[in-house]
Amino acid sequence: MSNHVQITFTDLQPEQQDVLISHLAEAGYDGFEENENELKAFITEENYDKELLNEMAFKYQLSFMQQLIPEQNWNAVWESNFQPVIVDDFVAVRANFHAPIKNVEQEIIITPKMSFGTGHHATTEMMMRQMREIDFKSKTVLDFGTGTGILAILAEKLGASGVVAVDNDDWSIANAEENIRGNDCRHIQLMKAGSLTGNNQYDIILANINKNVLVDNFSAMAGKLKNPGILLISGLLEADEADMLAQACRFSLTFRERSARNNWLCLKFIR
């Protein structure tokens, strides 16, 4: 584990938050906390590039504050802000220090550490909403860019027979492992990797990452999707839709459904 740098932007408009998160995620920031008119972004100390951040701030005419957060203090930072996420009567995401949430079909306990995907961000929530409409029973699932493991955990709870959860970040792998264990999941295989290799194919592929990673790995994802199969992707801005539709067309996938929230996009394709 390592220290993290917290960057705080203030006086933001909602659309500025969305654009910033997209660019910062591509630059290696792996945790975000959105509040009204404020965005906190987190990155490991060794990956922090202040010159790149200054260029981004100058481009969008924004100011920011910087704070170093020692690894041992991270839980306290998250616990002071982390609130449960409830998606209708379908799923609730809470920390272990919250009381159980009643009247939902599924409940997921996420240790609020420094991994993207606690359910608070629009992309994670849209992925979960779309997952409600998919039959996971006895299906094989790939969760590419698993982060906290939240989507892999939900896939197992919805009946998947086996889930492979992949991420390239040590912190995410450690956090996902803890969350998988905390939710008593028995059918999730966790793997550290930055790309997709091997010959395994899956009934359902989930990928909530960012546009660049999706484009770079679209061929691999298409090759790993069974026929019939479902590919559900997010981490995209609405402006990215045309490029994703073109990618899907290249690999003979059929566009089936879209959802959008706060300028973010979730797309479903089938084979």
Task: Describe the model.
By secondary structure, this protein is α/β, with parallel strands linked by helices. The protein is 31% helix and 32% strand. It has eight helices and 14 strands. It has helices spanning 14-26, 50-59, 74-79, 122-132, 150-157, 170-182, 211-224, 241-250; strands spanning 4-10, 31-35, 38-44, 64-69, 85-87, 91-94, 106-109, 140-144, 162-167, 188-192, 202-208, 225-237, 254-261, 264-270. Strands 10-9-8-11-12-14-13 form a seven-stranded mixed sheet, sandwiched between helices. A four-stranded antiparallel sheet has the order 2-3-1-4, with helices on one face. A three-stranded mixed sheet has the order 5-6-7, covered by helices on one side. A hairpin with a 2-residue loop joins strand 2 and strand 3. The radius of gyration is 18 Å and the shape is globular. The chain starts with a strand and ends with a strand.
Taken in chain order, the helices and strands follow as: EHEEHEHEEEHEHEHEEHEHEE
How much is the average pLDDT?
89
Separation, N- and C-terminal Cα atoms = 40 Å
- Low-pLDDT stretches are none
Fraction of residues in H or I helices: 25-40%
Oligomer: single chain
Major sheet: 7 strands, mixed
Strand order of the largest sheet: 10-9-8-11-12-14-13
